[in-house]
Design a protein that fits this description.
126 residues, alpha+beta, three-stranded antiparallel β-sheet, 29% strand
């Protein structure tokens, strides 16, 4: 029984580590790493993954406070992020593509396009 429990913990730890990817950005000439994982289909940083109850990014995603209006694809996500109190940050994914994230005061992050889309679905205009 003890072996089964240890094996199960190993599988869970492996699946958890597999789900987290390291994104990066440059700050004052230094590369900063950010662990990014998913909650559902949306990308969040480890602040949300590890402490979902107090994550501002997750709260903003689940309960859009502002109705969205169309401003343009990338501009729209960045503007909506600012509208809900976040700051946009461009991260580089492990596949070397850019990913725009919305960073909140508690340092939690959410994919900015997914955040804006959550508000759009809640009644924004096209």
């Amino acid at each position: 029984m003890k072996f089964l429990f240890i094996a199960l913990l190993s599988v869970v730890a492996y699946a958890r580590a597999d789900a987290i990817e390291t994104y990066t950005y440059l700050f004052k000439g230094k590369t900063v790493s950010v662990p990014i994982g998913k909650i559902g289909d949306t990308r969040f940083n480890d602040v949300c993954i590890n402490g979902q109850d107090h994550c501002e990014a997750l709260q903003a995603y689940k309960s859009p406070a502002k109705k969205a209006t169309h401003l343009g694809v990338e501009t729209y996500a960045s503007d909506y992020c600012a509208l809900v109190g976040g700051t946009s940050l461009l991260l580089t994914s492990p596949r070397q593509s850019g990913a725009l994230f919305c960073v909140f005061k508690d340092l939690s992050m959410v994919d900015a396009r997914a955040l804006a889309s959550s508000a759009w679905k809640e009644g924004g205009k096209h």
